[in-house]
Specification:
There is one protein chain. The protein is of the alpha/beta class. The protein has two domains: 319 residues, Alpha-Beta Barrel (TIM Barrel), CATH 3.20.20.540; 61 residues, no CATH class. It is built from 19 helices and ten strands. The strands form two sheets. An eight-stranded parallel barrel has the order 3-4-5-6-7-8-9-10, surrounded by six helices. Strands 1-2 form a two-stranded antiparallel ribbon. Helix 13 links the parallel strand 8 and strand 9. Helix 14 runs parallel beside helix 15. 49% of the residues are buried. Bound molecules: iron/sulfur cluster (SF4). The site of iron/sulfur cluster (SF4) has 8 residues, from helix 19.
Length: 429
């Protein structure tokens, strides 16, 4: 039985106990909020996860890492190495976004190597297989989408992005809006092409109950995707985006009625000044469902630095109530991420998540900073390195610049403020 079914029956599962322990929260709190839909534990009944994660109310803000092949670069070993680096850097979840190569083989290999919740976007495989088998994306059969979802669920995928709120009505809003960057979601683009060419409704919306049936069978968490997320600041918080969000709120409720766990995806590119309003809207319109934001990237002009633009947005989003941050790498908008892009992307997203946790008052978050401050005052670099979010980098930097005095750093040298004041205060009678 799924986590939501058990929670509604008032039962505490081993997974609820595990995440409660990790979060320092009572198992009853996890159960009760899971029953309300405000916490999720993405875990397919077919996947033996060694590390369950809770996402949502009062839990630590989690970080997701996207990996996967593209039509320009297919190397399974490389993606597995990205997975290893992401886990080492402290990611909480991983998504396989592969669109080229043997997609079943790639996904199964990643699943075997991944101790964390794994997500996918099944429309990628449905679309690419349809192109290979039928000759064109627009010839994709509706059944194909559901067959791929079931195949991936059977393999043990824990959560899937499904763009169910991208409907004919929301597309009309998009046309009326006159956006600068139209649609930047790949899944949203595939579905839009298919819907426009076939003059049909989105099967994921039209046959939502069929999707819920599959999800319930495997306790597959639905990540209700934002196919119309803004792809530039010019399109931030427009009618198309909000229309889709209203639908996602309705779909979240229908999922809960069928005991299916859901989270809701959000932007994207957003004006910094609109982040808080976006979180408020999601929480209100989607009845407290966990909010999974992609960034948000808060300026469009910094390619090469989008791990930073998204961390700035992510920190504010997390402090305003976002529950799950999808990392963005320095390679965003420019290339498939390299191994180093992945490592840096995870670390900066974790920094953003942690800043949010301090602001939200998540249990234990502030203690970490206090310990670091105490070790700084003591000028204990060994402990500072151990406490650093990226100990390897902290160690490397300390080692590359040797001060004359061992209890200061080369920033101020013998004029180390901490040392001067420490010694001065000791002299006081
Ligand atoms: S030398 Fe300056 S920067 Fe370094 S620990 Fe002392 S006060 Fe801090």
């Amino acid at each position: 039985m799924g986590q939501l079914t058990e929670a509604k029956k008032g039962r505490i599962t081993p997974e609820m106990r595990e995440v409660a322990k990790e979060e320092g929260l009572a198992p009853e709190f996890i159960r009760d909020n899971l029953a309300q839909g405000e916490i999720i534990i993405p875990k397919n009944v077919k996947h033996s996860l060694t590390c369950c994660k809770a996402i949502g109310k009062k839990t630590k803000t989690k970080v997701n890492t996207n990996i996967g092949t593209s039509t320009d670069y297919v190397a399974l070993d490389h993606e597995l190495e990205k997975l290893r680096i992401a886990i080492e850097a402290g990611t909480d979840a991983v998504m396989d976004l592969s669109t080229a190569g043997d997609l079943d083989k790639i996904r199964r290999s990643i699943l075997r190597a991944c101790p964390l919740p794994l997500g996918t976007v099944p429309i990628y495989q449905a679309a690419t297989e349809s192109i290979a088998e039928e000759g064109a994306l627009i010839k994709m059969k509706k059944d194909k989408i559901f067959q791929v979802i079931e195949r991936q669920a059977e393999d043990g995928v824990d959560f899937i992005t499904v763009h169910c709120g991208l409907t004919r009505q929301t597309l009309e809003r998009l046309r009326g809006e006159g956006r600068v960057t139209d649609i930047v979601s790949r899944g949203g683009a595939f579905l839009t092409c298919w819907m426009v060419a076939n003059d049909e409704e989105n099967p994921l919306y039209e046959e939502y109950d069929r999707l819920l049936e599959i999800a319930k069978k495997y306790d597959l968490t639905l990540s209700l995707g934002d196919g119309l997320r803004p792809g530039s600041l010019a399109d931030s918080t427009d009618r198309a985006q909000i229309q889709e969000l209203i639908l996602l709120g309705e779909l979240a409720k229908r999922a809960w009625e069928q005991d299916v766990q859901v989270m809701v995806e959000g932007p994207g590119h957003l004006l910094f000044s609109e982040i808080e309003a976006n979180i408020l809207l999601e929480k209100k319109l989607c009845h407290g469902a966990p909010f999974y934001v992609l960034g948000p990237v808060v300026t469009d002009i910094a390619p090469g630095y989008d791990h930073i633009t998204s961390a700035i947005g992510g920190a504010y989003a997390a402090s305003s109530g976002a529950d799950f941050l999808c990392y963005v790498t320095a390679g965003e908008h420019l290339r498939l991420p390299t191994l180093e892009d992945v490592r840096q992307g995870v670390v900066v997203a974790r920094i953003a998540a942690h800043i949010g946790d301090i602001s939200k008052g998540v249990k234990g978050a502030m203690d970490w900073d206090r310990k670091m401050a105490e070790m700084r005052k003591k000028r204990d670099w060994k402990k500072q390195v151990e406490l650093a979010i990226d100990p390897a980098l902290a160690q490397k930097m300390r080692a590359t610049s040797k001060p004359h005095l061992s209890d200061v750093c080369t920033m101020c040298g013998e004029y180390c403020a901490l040392k001067i004041v420490d010694e001065a205060l000791k002299l006081r009678p």
